[in-house]
Amino acid sequence: VYCNNSLGNVSQDNINFIVGNFSIANEVNKIMASDAEADDYFGHSVSISGDYASVGAYHEDSGGSNRGSVYIFKKNSTGQFVQVQKIQSSDIQASDTFGHSVSISRNVAIVGAYGDDDNGQYSGSAYIFSKDFGGENNWGEVKKLTAFDGAKNDQFGISVSINGDVAIVGAHYGNDNGQDSGSAYIFSKDV
User: For the residues of 120-157, what is the DSSP string, one character each?
Assistant: First the structure.
């Protein structure tokens, strides 16, 4: 997957899906946010698993400056990816940067919001969403994750990844082993 700015405006990003091997690639379709605006940074983070793709726009401004959003796309019967939902966290605030990082695995997604301030300014958080949580075909928020030892400026959620029932969240400015030495936190679903 690569990012292409075909609108000629650095602020209006869109995504082209590329599938194939390294020597031959066939474009499947180009996707954009249904409510795209300048400086949203749609496409800053992307992830795909099976028939679903998630795309972060961490400067999207619905309800406040740089709150951020994530867009969920599903492959339809003709092979085209179409937007099915826009998600935000339940406690989103201005400058949370929700969607700076995204990862999707089957019917579960994780979204980073390194600007969240539960444990101090820019301490960060991450959110787990699940398909069909809160209704059929709804991507609902299941859990908010924070670091047990989170602190101001850690930026927990700067990077995220999920595979099945296990997720990992990066906090690159954590100071456990010296200034900005960084940390990563592994979470697993309760059994």
Answer: BTT-BEEEEEEETTTSTT-EEEEEEE--TT--TT--EE
The residue ranges of the chain whose pLDDT is under 50 are: 1-12
Q: What is the pLDDT of residues 55-89, one digit of tens each?
A: 999 999 998 899 999 999 999 999 999 999 999 99
What pTM was estimated for this model as a whole? 0.86
From residue 106, alpha-carbon distances to 114, 127, 144, 147 in Å are: 24, 16, 19, 25
Distances (CA, A) of 37 to 3, 10, 53, 107, 169: 16, 12, 20, 28, 28
Task: Give me 60's structure tokens.
Answer: 């999207």
